[in-house]
Design brief:
Length: about 300
């Protein structure tokens, strides 16, 4: 199935919401969705429009997950969580995109504040976070997670690709802002998972999500947050993989059985105890909230 033409600049011929929105260019490709920069012709502002990917083996499942994410995001209004302005259905954005005549779309906040970069792209380009950047971004994402957790929602897919960071200069001062995206796998922590398939990205999943059929809770997100920020700061995963150890079972075994190699990865020794607690195998031994983790991180830096 072809992908959108990234060089296409003219408005899409697809009329969204009776012509209210015009698609311009694709600005993001993820495992589950494509994101277009678009124009809200009614309010005269730029927005992002997100469609579920339809080129996998389960187009219906992708649509269901997409709708679930929209419902989750609709409950959350926080400065560090991407805002949803509108949802609707339209024809697919180009030919052969989907087997369905109509698919859902989501209209989201577009924050053109300067450098908007997912953390995974910064890692790929060896542009690792400084201690100051990590402290600010971690505090912001932790605040967003605490907000969601207090409302009974666990994210369950914290990873570098789902955190977008902005950097801008305002009145000769550098302003940093992080945004948490992709709530398609979010769940109520108390619920049981009836599907035997583990959801989330194995490299960042807490041991309890790999070993049990539960949705996880705030502490599961704390674990993933620690893995994510170690990688964003130091460019390495917390475990060492041999050349043959790249399948799901090898990765799961390391999360559940092995101690992370923090002394080899984390070059700031005073942060090692902070990360060790966040990465404890037993959720009861971790920080019990993302905010508690971020506070411990900040306190170590000022010692």
């Amino acid at each position: 199935m072809p992908e959108p033409d990234n060089n296409k600049r003219e408005p899409s011929p697809i009329s969204l919401s009776d012509g209210r929105y015009s698609l311009n260019e694709i600005v993001g490709r993820g495992g589950h969705a494509f994101v277009w920069l678009a124009r809200d012709n009614k309010l005269n502002r730029d927005v992002l429009i997100k469609y579920p990917r339809q080129d996998g083996k389960d187009p219906k499942g992708e649509v269901e997950e997409f709708i679930r994410e929209a419902k989750q995001l609709g409950q959350l209004l926080h400065p560090y969580i991407v805002h949803v302005f509108d949802v609707g259905e339209s024809e697919p954005p180009y030919d052969n995109y989907s087997p369905f005549e109509k698919i859902p779309y989501m209209v989201m906040q577009f924050r053109n504040l300067g450098e908007m970069t997912p953390l995974d792209k910064k890692i790929e380009s060896n542009d690792f976070l400084t201690l100051r950047e990590a402290s600010i971004y971690l505090s912001q994402i932790a605040e967003a997670l605490d907000y969601a957790h207090l409302r009974g929602i666990a994210h369950r897919d914290i990873k570098p690709g789902n955190i977008i960071v902005d950097k801008q200069i305002y009145q000769n001062q550098e302003q940093l802002c992080a945004t948490l995206t992709d709530w398609g796998l979010a769940a109520i922590p108390s619920q049981e998972i009836t599907d035997t398939k583990v959801v989330g990205t194995p490299h960042y999943l807490a041991p309890e999500l790999l070993a049990t059929k539960t949705a996880g809770d705030a502490r599961s997100d704390v674990y993933a947050l620690a893995v994510t920020f170690i990688e964003a700061m130091y460019g390495q995963w917390i475990f060492k993989l041999a050349g043959h150890e790249y399948n799901y079972f090898d990765i799961a075994r390391k999360h559940m059985k092995e101690a992370p190699r923090l002394s080899e990865v984390v070059s700031d020794p005073k942060l090692i105890p902070v990360f060790e607690k966040a990465l404890a195998k037993n959720p009861d031994d971790r920080y019990q909230s993302a905010g508690e983790f971020a506070q411990a991180f900040r306190e170590v830096l000022v010692l």
